[in-house]
Amino acid sequence: MLQLVLAMGLRYPRSSRGIRVKVLVVEDEPAIRESLAYSLKREGYEVDTAGTLAEAERRLEEVGLVILDLMLPDGSGFDLLLGLRRRERPPAVIVLSSRDSEADRVAGLETGADDYIVKPFSPREVMARVRAVLRRAVREREERPSPATGLTTDPDTRRAAIHGASLDLTRVEFDLLHCMLHARGRVFTRAQLIEKLWGDNFAITDRTVDTHVKALRRKVTEAGGDPSLIETVRGVGYRVSDGPLQPASDM
Q1: Same domain assignment for residues 185 and 113
Q2: Which among 14, 98, 104, 209 is least buried, having the fewest CB atoms inside 10 angstroms?
Q3: What is the CATH number of the domain that holds 90?
Q4: pLDDT score for 143
Q5: How far apart are CA 189 and CA 248, in angstroms?
Q6: Residues 130 and 30 reside in one and the same domain
Q7: Is residue 19 domain-shared with residue 135, that is, in the same domain?
Q8: What phi and psi values does residue 41 have, to the nearest 5 degrees?
């Protein structure tokens, strides 16, 4: 039954990583903002919205993609775009603007946007662009190993390795590792992990999360990884260590 639930849960509301993606729509026109939010939710994305730059700045936590209008009441979307590109792990950005000159499109892309869509637009086309941008962003990020942990995860092949040694992981174990590895150092509560891996429509208990973490930790250790790589934060949850880790020595 669990395999069926996972297959259903991962088919639509997940990115190619197998983890739910949060999209922030920054648009001051309510009709456009609501239309995009509706289309994104139908695709299974987690959606938040903002009508100003100030509001957008407050809503950036855990965002994987920003759909950004350039002309906002309290400033230019370029300011937000520049700020995002200075981050260690910037979200993907799709600019959505009525400014349709070649100079505007080039400026948007050269400032760091992953795509540029001119208004008026087709919601169907925007959804296709969203999927394409997220595929590229995930592939580029996952092709880079995590040097401090020796861990790599490839969402296209669903393969994971540590210091070159392959890890034989279940679907849930892979998604769990992938989620924590690419927010290394961040503590995830059990509730957050349930939401990211299963969504909120399934009756998954904290004990289920603990069981998967225990199995994942055992497999990482058996493959030569540091047993403290996946840390338990008492009373809170779990994280992948953000400190320098070495292969475990033979006992």
Answers
A1: no
A2: 98
A3: 3.40.50.2300
A4: 47
A5: 27
A6: yes
A7: yes
A8: -65, -35
Strands 230-233 and 237-240: antiparallel
What the block records as the tokens of 189 is: 């509560």
* Grouped pLDDT means (10 residues each) for the chain, 251 residues: 31 46 94 94 92 93 91 92 82 90 87 90 91 76 58 82 89 89 86 84 83 92 87 92 50 34
Instruction: Give the domain range for residue 177.
Output: 151-240
Residue at a domain's end among 84, 119, 142: 142
For residues 13 and 44, the answer to whether their CB atoms sit within 8 Å is: yes
Tell me the pTM.
Answer: 0.56
Same domain, 60 and 103: yes
Return the H-helix or E-strand segment holding 84.
helix 77-85
Which of 142, 167, 190 is where one domain is finished?
142
pLDDT at 117: 92
157: left (phi over 0), alpha (psi -120 to 50) or beta: alpha
Position 204 scores a pLDDT of 83
pLDDT at 148: 60
Q: Are residues 136 and 156 in the same domain?
A: no
CA gap 206, 193 in Å, rounded:
9
222 with 170, same domain?
yes
What is the enclosing helix (H) or strand (E) of 139? helix 123-142
Task: Please state, as a whole number, how many other Cβ atoms lie within 10 Å of the Cβ of residue 102.
Answer: 7
The number of domains in the chain is 2
Burial classification of residue 178, based on how many CB atoms lie within 10 Å of its CB (0-12 exposed, 13-18 middle, 19 or more buried): buried
CA distance 251 to 248: 9
Measured distance CA(121)–CA(94) in Å, rounded? 13
- In a 3-state reduction of DSSP, which class is residue 184? coil
- Kindly state whether residues 31 and 136 are assigned to the same domain: yes
134 and 210 in a common domain: no
